[in-house]
Amino acid sequence: MSDPQRREFLVAAAGIASLATLSGTQPAAAGDPSFMNNVPDPVAAGKELPTFKFALEKSEGKVIGNSFGKEATVTQLPISKGIAGVSMKLEPGAMRELHWHATAAEWAFVLEGRVRTTVFDPAGYAETNDFEPGDVWYFPRGHGHMLECLDNKPCHFILIFDNGYFSEFGTFSITDWVGHAPKPLLAKTFGLPESAFDSFPKDEVYFARGKIPPTEPSVPLEGWKLPPETHRYRLLAQPPHGTFQGGREWRVDSTRFPISKTVTGVILDLDPGGVRTLHWHPNANEWQYVIDGDVSVTLFGSHGRFRTEQLSKGDVGYIPQGYGHSIENIGNRPSRMLIGFNTGVYQTIDLSNWIAANPLDVLATNFSQPPELFEKFPHRDVFIAAKDGPGK
Ligand code: MN
Ligand code: MN
Q1: Comparing C-alpha atoms, which of 282, 278, 262 is closest to residue 351?
Q2: For residue 19, how far is its CA from the centre of ligand 1 (angstroms)?
Q3: What is the pLDDT of residue 41?
């Protein structure tokens, strides 16, 4: 062994030793990001790839009145350790009460109706925003917030959390806390008689129900203290990030929406027969929700493992970080998907682009083909292909 080789060997050996220590003492657990890169995830380590599909909108979820929250966590979809999602509908006058998520940031996309949110941060800033279909919000992990339906018609939105376990030990609601805190403690905290809390709810309300909110929100007790970074981004009000023969994509990460440090969101439209071509994401898991249409999603998991799932409107899919995949519209009308990544900076490696970037002799040897064959391959990243192949 030469000296540089020996040095590399020693560094690698030290890495294996520390990995063994880690895996020997600690199974992969919620909030432990190490499982994504180092410790094999038992859910995805079997001979066959597990299912990566869950029929979210067909599930029952939590229903109060005409409002609901349906969730996809590791309980419903065991492979989805990095990201959880919720479909939530609020009836007019309903509010998802003041709460926070101890172990997840919240990213959302509005499908129908209008929503108002107020979010409060540790610097003492609060922002109240109104949202329309196509708009996005992001609340950093642990920041207090509420969501309420505006107007006389229901609203429907999809929430994405950067932790697949978030539901089990993640949601802290204000009524749950106040309802269980001793009255003398509440009296001292707020400078009120204990009796002031007699008729407060005793248990978590979750969906509070009241009047339809005013056109303009009423002023908080301490007035408005607006944060330096907004929590709202109007995704579909922008032109698409990329337009191709076969489809188009809108994308927002922290480069355009600075507060969104841990989530990237995408709206992917595919024409019939269109394909988001074979690719992987080096730095993030991918969570998919079909807004409309029928798609076929493939997953490549190494060691010959390959799995295909068909997703339709209301279904959820999940692609682990670094796994190869593709999405094809197999219906006869356009498809639209909401896709979330647990990263603030979007990255992709597309197979077409990787091939185009390698020396021809490498490709020839690798595939046992004449080098001239590869001249016919695309000389660029395809990203989205149309029904009859890559556009110009
Ligand atoms: Mn929330
Ligand atoms: Mn992808």
Answers
A1: 278
A2: 35
A3: 85
